[in-house]
Design goal:
Layout (H helix, E strand, L loop, with lengths): L1 H25 L1 H5 L18 E5 L4 E4 L2 H10 L5 E7 L6 E3 L4 E4 L12 E4 L2 H11 L2 E3 L1 H11 L2
Antiparallel strand pairs: 1-2, 1-3, 3-4, 5-6, 5-7
C-alpha cells in the first residue's frame, strides 16, 4: 500500500512539473514579443487572444488579437507568412490559426473589436463556449475576413 502511495505521488509530481514546463514553453513567445507590435497592448495580459505571425525570412510579429493580426498581415503583404498561430482561449497555448475552431460573436467582450473572435484547439471547447456564451462557429478565413471587413 505504501509503495502505491509513493508511486502515485511520484506520478502526480511528474505531471505537475510537465504541466508547468508545458505552460512556460507555450507562452515563451510572450517574453520575446511582450507588447503588441501595432497597439502596444501587453500580450501577457491578453495571452488568451494573442497571435504570432512567423515569416519565411525568419522574423516574427507578436500581436494581441486577430484585429492586430489583420493589420500586421496587411502591412506585411509583400512578405510570405510561414505560419499564423493563435492562443487557445482556454489554455493560452499557441495553435495553428487555420486548424483552430473559431467563434465569432457571443456575450464575452472581444479584444480590439466590437465583435469578439475566439479560437479553440478542440471543437468540444468551442461548442461548450457556444452553449454558454453564444456566437457562431467559423473558420479562420471567415474570422479574419470579419476582422478586416468590420475594420474593428
Amino acid at each position: 500500500m505504501v509503495q502505491h502511495k509513493i508511486f502515485a505521488a511520484a506520478i502526480f509530481s511528474m505531471l505537475a512539473v510537465f504541466s508547468l514546463v508545458t505552460l512556460l514553453c507555450a507562452q515563451a513567445d510572450i517574453e520575446e514579443h511582450r507588447d503588441c507590435i501595432h497597439c502596444g497592448m501587453d500580450r501577457k495580459a491578453y495571452g488568451f487572444s494573442r497571435m504570432l505571425v512567423r515569416y519565411d525570412d525568419g522574423t516574427a510579429a507578436g500581436v494581441c488579437s486577430l484585429h492586430c493580426a489583420a493589420i500586421e498581415l496587411n502591412a506585411s503583404a509583400a512578405r510570405r507568412a510561414k505560419s499564423i498561430e493563435v492562443a487557445d482561449r482556454d489554455t493560452r497555448t499557441l495553435i495553428d490559426a487555420e486548424k483552430a475552431y473559431w467563434i465569432i460573436g457571443g456575450d464575452k467582450p472581444g479584444v480590439m473589436t466590437m465583435t469578439a473572435k475566439w479560437a479553440f484547439a478542440e471543437r468540444r471547447d468551442a461548442e461548450k463556449f457556444l452553449k454558454e456564451h453564444g456566437g457562431r462557429l467559423a473558420s479562420f478565413k471567415e474570422s479574419l475576413d470579419a476582422a478586416i471587413e468590420m475594420r474593428d
